[in-house]
Amino acid sequence: MPEEAELAKKKVELDGLSQVLAEKELNIEELKLAVRRFQHRYFSEVGRKYVELDELQAQVAQLKARQDPQNHELKQQAATSKKQARDTKVEYEDIDLEPQADLLKLTVDDENDTKDSFDCSLFLANIEPHL
């Protein structure tokens, strides 16, 4: 019965490796969550600043154009800056900054060949990284 002993040994080894795999998968999901939290914070804070910056640049360009109404280049720059500010604001507002709840299920075989399910509620920001 050396085959049965070898099979039992391999099963124990497989069970151990399955547990390690489940832990690694959980670690990966935790890292993904950390990245998404960072993205959420980045887009909510930095994205807002880009909107403000573009609005200020548009205001400056409009003031320059008013000071020299005959200068068509300044008028064009003011129009371009205003459009950029509007586009940035629309893009920022289109980003969903509300966290979405995703349920992650990891299933691991235990020693009795039954399935143990580990539920981890992960709040993942649904962010488009395009700012």
Please give a handful of descriptors for the protein shown.
2 helices; alpha+beta; two-stranded antiparallel ribbon; 2 strands
Summarize the structure in words.
The protein has 131 residues and is α+β, with helices and mostly antiparallel strands. The chain is rod-shaped. The chain is built from two helices and two strands. It has a two-stranded antiparallel ribbon. Helix 1 runs antiparallel to helix 2.
Helix count, DSSP H or I runs of 4 or more residues: 2
Order of helices and strands: HHEE
Provide the structure class. Answer: alpha+beta
Which percent range describes the beta-strand content?
15-25%
Question: What is the global morphology?
Answer: rod-shaped
Helix content: 55-70%
Radius of gyration: 28 Å
Query: Would you report the number of β strands?
Result: 2
What is the gist of this entry?
The chain has 131 residues and is of the alpha+beta class.
Topology:
Blueprint: H1 2-67, H2 72-94, E1 99-109, E2 115-125
Antiparallel strand pairs: 1-2
Helix pairs in contact: 1-2
